[in-house]
Amino acid sequence: MACPFLEDVLDEEALILRRAFRHERVCQDRSDPLVFGDDYLIERYRFSGDGLRYLCRLLGPKIQHQTARSHALTVPQMVCVTLRWFASGSFLYSVGDAENLNKGTICCTIRRVCLALKSFSNIFITFPGHRRPLYIKEELYKIAAFPNIIGAVDCTHIRIKRPSGEHEGDYVNRKSFHSINVQVRVICGYYDLHKLILCI
Fold first, then answer.
1. Do residues 196 and 146 make contact, with C-beta atoms less than 8 angstroms apart?
2. Which residues contact 184 (CB under 8 A, 6 or more apart)?
3. CA 169, CA 161: separation in Å to the nearest integer?
4. CB within 8 A of 98, min separation 6: which ones?
């Protein structure tokens, strides 16, 4: 076994070889994403600089690392990584390559930010009406045996007249007629959903 304190030529050579093959850890420069203009930010993250700053102030206390050990990501970097993943709908590798980060870092960051966003769901997501969500869930379970459902979403194409102008092709659907895609969200109770099912 090689020991640096022995006066052996082989041990000296082993130390020299070990030092020669040791490579220092290289930390890539990750610039602050908020220094870019709004056009750049909207194109990549779908948020303006003010919107990103608001999210950073909101989520910062929940996602901020306690130390800067191992060059931990800052709050704006974590928020931007997550928003880039949301905006692109791409794989973690693609987002990691674009942000110069490892796939594991991307995965942990997205999870951390999503859990922080979820903690604010009761503040930002409200349901209209006077019925409590628990009551609605129970009634919908009685009808269709779907657990934890509080509403329904459906989409349909509404046929329209052929629009004039350069964007006419944007209104042609997959069945080759002009239409507008309309999405309907229904939050309902027992009687409302029963009527909805009968209409279908």
1. no
2. 153, 154, 155, 156
3. 12
4. 84
Q: Please, are residues 6 and 14 in contact by the beta-carbon 8 Å criterion? A: no
What whole-number distance in Å separates Cα of residue 99 and Cα of residue 92? Answer: 10
Strand partners, 151: 187
For residue 159, give both structure tokens. Answer: 């046929």
Torsion of CA 64, 70, 76, 79, to 10 degrees: -80
Cβ contact 32:76 at 8 Å: yes
Phi-psi region of 44 (alpha: psi -120 to 50; beta: other; left: phi over 0): alpha
At 86-142, the pLDDT tens digits run 888 788 888 888 888 889 999 999 999 999 999 998 888 766 667 777 887 888 788
pTM: 0.57
CA distances from 141 to 20, 29, 137, 189 (A): 68, 53, 6, 10
**Structural tokens at position 62:** 């929940």
